[in-house]
Amino acid sequence: MRTASGTLLSRFTMEVATALFTGLLGSIVCYGSLEFGTGWGDAGPEPGYFPFYVGLIIILASAFNLGMAFLHHRHDLAEAFLTYEQGHRVLSFFGPMFLFVLVSSYLGIYVGMVLYLFGVMVFQGGYRVPKAAAISLITAVVNYFLFEVWFQVPLLKGPVEALLGIH
After folding, report:
1. pLDDT, tens digit, for every residue of 70-110?
2. How far is CA 109 from the centre of its chain?
3. CA distance from start to end of the chain
4. 158 has which bridge partners?
């Protein structure tokens, strides 16, 4: 929903989406607790008793928030939750992180670390390529010795580490 003020997402839209999402979560909790029983047995409450009522409270709170969103929507129609500029900043932060996770899951955490640090330093930080390459490689080597050698905690490795005999 784009308005003339550059709003990517309005506060009203976000409040409605959040209320619906939390209501859905509460419904899932209630539905799941039905399997274990929500009543009071001879030995006290059944296993699903407390989760059911917690889910019910979440549903009621979500319904209240949804009602408040519609009630206040008439007064502040153009209030922005997220502008295009803010959305761009959020994506410029989470985009490289998402790529880091994706690359690390296939090529290993050390290769992902080098590529992430190098890319962020060069494209976002404005560092020169040799300096960014040196820092990202040194960081990966230091992390390797810190986790793999000193703490003896194996981290996710990929084909590059196998080629180097680090596997």
Report:
1. 988 766 666 888 899 999 989 998 999 999 999 999 999 99
2. 19
3. 49
4. none
